[in-house]
Every structure is written in structure tokens, then in C-alpha cells.
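Hey,
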Amino acid sequence: MSGLNASLGYFLAIIGVSVVGRVFFARWRPRWTFLTEFVAAFALAACRLEVDTIAEVGQFAGALGPDVAITMLFISITVHAVIMQGVSGNPSVTLTGLLLKDTGVVSAVLAVSAQILGAYVALLVAGMYWQMELTDMHMIKNLMMFECSTSLRVSALQGVIAEALGALIFHLVYLVLQNRSQLLRIPICAVLLTFIAYA
């Protein structure tokens, strides 16, 4: 249970930092709205890295099964969607907006750059968190961090097809739900993203 408590504390800290960053950049610096994309990408990547830790080594080191990883992924996606309304944190969604001519080229380039930087900072923060080795799960992940291996359990062609199919399904559903109520859009997208990640 201590592994789950450490992970929950990590998630709460990431959410707290994200809320503060979102409020600061959205309200006090309206010209720097692309920095909200940085915060959104940071939150998504940081939470996803911890979910991956639970999924990869949680059952061996923390007695946390795949059900905990899926539940944490669903909760983090849902909380992200509620907190970061109007901000994607995802380069493919930003590029979709550019192709639909909802955003300009300069703002799209700034947003994608901020998203890549946010994901990189999330990797650095997660690495520092794992180095604290608060649980056995994080100690193992810290050791695995320096090892370069693929997490793909299928051939590269199957992986590309699965990613393309998942992205296509998500974007089609996203476009259909774009003008719907938040109460409908957030849970459907969260369930869909969780299912795609699990599949």
C-alpha cells in the first residue's frame, strides 16, 4: 500500500503544480497562452510516466496490478480534462487545429514547442522522483531508466498499425464530440483514451 500512497502523492503534487501554472499563465499572462500548453503537456507526461511505472513494475514491487494502472490512467486523464479545459497538451490535437484552420501557424509552432519542452521537463521531474526511491517500485524504475529497451511487445509494423488505428479512432471521436457538452465529452474521451492505452 505504501507504493500506492507514494504514487497518489506524486499525482496530487503534479495536479497542484498544474493548477497553479494554468491559473498563472492563463489569467495573468494572456499573451503567453502557449505556456499553458507547456503546463498541460507536463501534467500529461508526468502522470503517464507514473502510470507506466505502476503498469511495468507495480505488480512485482508494490503488489499493484494492471487494474490499478488502468484506474490511475483513467483518473489522471479525467482530472486533466477538467483542469485543462481548452488546452490539449497534445501535439497531434494542436496540429489537427492547424489543419482545420482553427489556429495560426505561429501559435501552433509555439504550442507544439511548448508541449515538447513540457514533456521533457516531466521526464526530468519523474527521474528525480524515482531517484528518491521512496518505494521498491521506484527503485526498480530508477534502475530501468538508464537501460534502453523497447516496451513494444509486438513487431514494429504491428505497433505502427495499432498506433495509427488508435489515433484515427480518437481523432474521429474527438471531432464528433468537439461541440458537445463537457459532461458528455470528458468521460467519453477519458474512457476511449484509457481503452486505447490498455489495448
